[in-house]
Design brief:
It is a single chain. By secondary structure, this protein is mostly helical. The chain has four helices and two strands; from the N terminus they run αβααβα. α1 runs antiparallel to α2 and α2 runs antiparallel to α3. The longest helix is centred in the first third of the chain and has 29 residues. The termini are far apart.
Length: about 110
């Protein structure tokens, strides 16, 4: 029989996995287009920090096994942080740069 913890954390894990996918895809895109990318180290640090936050949230989610009774408002509250992390991961990388230089410093200060 599946427990409430297992059922609830599946959706959280999916959202966190989507965020990690956004980050890793963005890094791969930057590496793939490295001749067009002007690196800015604070932006790279920001990317890795958000990746660590995703992993840390997934790790901390295991502590939710101690919750005895789940109510929908509590679940929505717990779900809020992974959703915010996903949105942050999506905003980390510039989109729509088909031509020209991708200036991460400019993107960092405009974001």
């Amino acid at each position: 029989m599946i427990s409430a913890f297992e059922y609830i954390t599946v959706f959280i894990s999916i959202i966190l996995g989507l965020g990690v996918t956004q980050i890793l895809t963005g890094i791969a895109d930057l590496v793939h287009q490295n001749e067009r990318v002007k690196i800015y180290w604070p932006h790279i640090l920001w990317i890795f920090l958000v990746l660590i936050l995703h992993v840390q949230e997934w790790w901390v989610t295991f502590e939710l096994r101690k919750v005895d009774q789940w109510r929908f408002p509590l679940y929505l509250f717990v779900l809020l942080y992974p959703v915010v992390l996903f949105i942050l991961a999506r905003l980390l990388f510039p989109f729509g740069f088909n031509e020209g230089v991708i200036d991460l410093k400019k993107f960092y200060f405009e974001s």
